[in-house]
Design brief:
Layout: H1 5-24, H2 42-50, H3 56-65, H4 67-74, H5 83-91, H6 99-107, H7 113-128, H8 132-144, H9 153-167, H10 172-180, H11 183-188, H12 202-211, H13 221-230, E1 234-236, E2 244-246, E3 256-258, E4 261-263, H14 270-281, H15 283-297, H16 304-316, H17 321-329, H18 332-335, H19 345-356, E5 360-362, H20 367-376, H21 399-411, E6 423-425, H22 427-430, H23 437-449, H24 455-465, H25 477-493, H26 495-498
Antiparallel strand pairs: 1-2, 3-4, 5-6
Helix pairs in contact: 1-21, 1-25, 3-4, 7-19, 9-10, 10-14, 12-13, 15-16, 15-17, 16-17, 21-25, 23-25
Length: 500
């Protein structure tokens, strides 16, 4: 981002002004921890949860297919053409490279550009893919099986491709096994060096606490120690381009007892395979994973009735994620949950990119976006602890975080005035010319929020952006463009946009 001193000072002043305008609006639909809906139709609610942000094409698709038809369509991403992502693969060839070729590319990357290109690909796929639900689930499983990028750039790229994306809508057992054999996970939790003389308990603890059973899932410290012993020898080949390797020399072959089951002495990789199979099919795993999915897609206070019914589906389908998700997304509890989820920073930014997309042009890997995400606390792939970025609103609602969110909401529309060299915004492609400022507010609400504001909030927005202007007074094109940056910024900083 290149900003002159003059524009920097102007930006600072405008941001302060925009924040004062945005916070001056007394939103009738806002509560302390929840937005009370924007006359949200069932269709808009479904789109808000299944996508990274509503676009006109999404509305047209769900109107044509119906709610269940749209859900089923998104649950089968392999049937959905994805031309923008095909173009991304043509540009960013490292995404699909063979492992050895990828690491050679990284070794030659003295400027560390592949790391930033990989983060940009995460943002780009969320913003531009037509397989929206798949991208939302990719984010969920990325957090569930968290491995920070750090020094594992090549391993993380492979993990994203071969573990998370490959199995995001498959069987949970396959996802767990793929993660357990991922060099990224093996290196991150020191499993690669775990041997019979010194079993490392890091992965054993996290695979039960975070990946499967949950902290209250019925295991003990003795189980953790025994699982660590069962997994000794699960490592990475000396030529690490070749991935996972079981080293019998490192393995503890003595008898073990795990979750009440005796593992006989003298075995090898079978110990680890049996452990993972037990964890994948355990009732506590079904409950824990179901709870997390319901929390992500329904409410920070997940309904117990839906957790229980989802757990039953998980157990009855052998952990079929596609069928589990269909159960959640077609449930009455899901349909009654509009406005109960707070957008995390990455979700918020991508929603803005999607809302502005008809008129937005953006260069790949623009640093400003990542500076903003870092300031808001959710830089892609950079959560260091193994538990993944927090999912509930309480982790993201504080004074500094809200200020950063409002800053982004007010600054993003100013790309229409050329403030960010790598981005441009053309209003005519996004919001049509209107006769009056009142009609402009209505058109902007439809473009940014997907629907109309209620009467009280419409009046408040009109007053905040044009206090002395008659809402029925005719406006010309220049006047319209004068009002639009503040108007769109106010809408994107509102509870209507921040909650979904």
């Amino acid at each position: 981002m290149n900003v002159s001193r003059r524009n920097f000072l102007k930006m600072s002043g405008m941001t302060a002004l925009g924040l004062s305008v945005g916070t001056a609006v007394s939103w009738s639909g806002a509560r302390l921890v929840q937005a009370a809906g924007i006359s949200t139709s069932p269709e808009l609610h479904v789109l808000n949860r299944l996508t990274w942000g509503i676009r006109p094409e999404d509305i047209a698709a769900i109107q044509q297919m119906g709610i269940e038809g749209y859900i089923d369509w998104q649950l089968n991403p392999e049937t959905i053409p994805d031309p923008f992502i095909d173009e991304l693969f043509n540009r960013e060839t490292f995404i699909a490279m063979e492992t050895s070729d990828l690491f050679r590319e990284i070794d030659a990357d003295v400027g560390f550009t592949i790391e930033s290109r990989f983060m940009w690909a995460r943002v780009y796929r969320a913003a531009y893919s037509d397989r929206q639900l798949h991208e939302v689930l990719v984010e969920f499983w990325t957090d569930h099986f968290n491995v920070p990028l750090g020094d594992l750039v090549g391993e993380k790229i492979i993990d994203d491709r071969e573990v998370v994306r490959k199995h995001a809508l498959g069987k949970f057992r396959d996802l767990l096994f793929a993660s357990a054999q991922s060099p990224a996970m093996l290196y991150y939790l020191n499993q690669d060096s775990s041997n019979k003389e010194h079993p490392n308990e890091n992965y054993a603890r996290e695979v039960m606490e975070l990946h499967t059973l949950g902290v209250n899932g019925g295991y003990t410290e003795d189980d953790i120690k025994a699982v660590a012993r069962a997994l000794t020898g699960w490592t990475v080949r000396e030529n690490w381009y070749d991935g996972f390797f079981f080293d019998m020399v490192m393995h503890d072959t003595d008898e073990k007892t795990i979750l009440g089951v005796t593992f006989p002495a003298g075995r090898g990789i079978e110990d680890g395979l049996q452990v993972l199979d037990m964890l994948a099919t355990h009732p506590s795993t079904a409950h824990f994973v179901s709870m997390k999915l319901v929390r992500r897609f329904v409410s920070d206070s997940p309904p117990q009735t839906l957790i229980d019914s989802t757990t039953a589906v998980f157990l009855g389908t052998d952990g079929d994620i596609r069928r589990v998700m269909r159960h959640i997304l077609t449930s009455p509890e899901f349909m009654d949950s509009a406005g109960q989820k707070f957008r995390r920073p990455l979700d918020l930014m991508v929603s803005m990119l999607r809302a502005l997309r008809p008129g937005l042009t953006i260069e790949a890997g623009i640093p400003w976006l990542f500076w903003e995400l870092e300031g808001m606390g959710q830089l892609p792939f950079y959560w260091s602890p193994p538990n993944g970025y927090p999912d509930a609103a309480g982790a993201w609602i504080n004074t500094n975080a809200l200020l950063n969110r409002w800053n982004l909401a007010m600054l993003m529309p100013l790309t229409a005035e050329g403030w960010v060299e790598e981005m441009s915004l053309e209003w005519d492609s996004l919001i049509p010319q209107t006769e009056t400022i009142g009609e402009l507010v209505d058109a902007a609400a439809v473009a940014i929020l997907g629907g109309a504001l209620n009467d009280a909030d419409r009046t408040a927005v009109l007053t905040s952006i044009a206090d002395d202007t008659d809402p029925y007074e005719t406006i010309d094109h220049d006047t319209r463009n004068y009002y639009l940056p503040t108007l769109v910024g106010v809408l994107m900083s509102s509870p209507y946009f921040q909650w979904h």
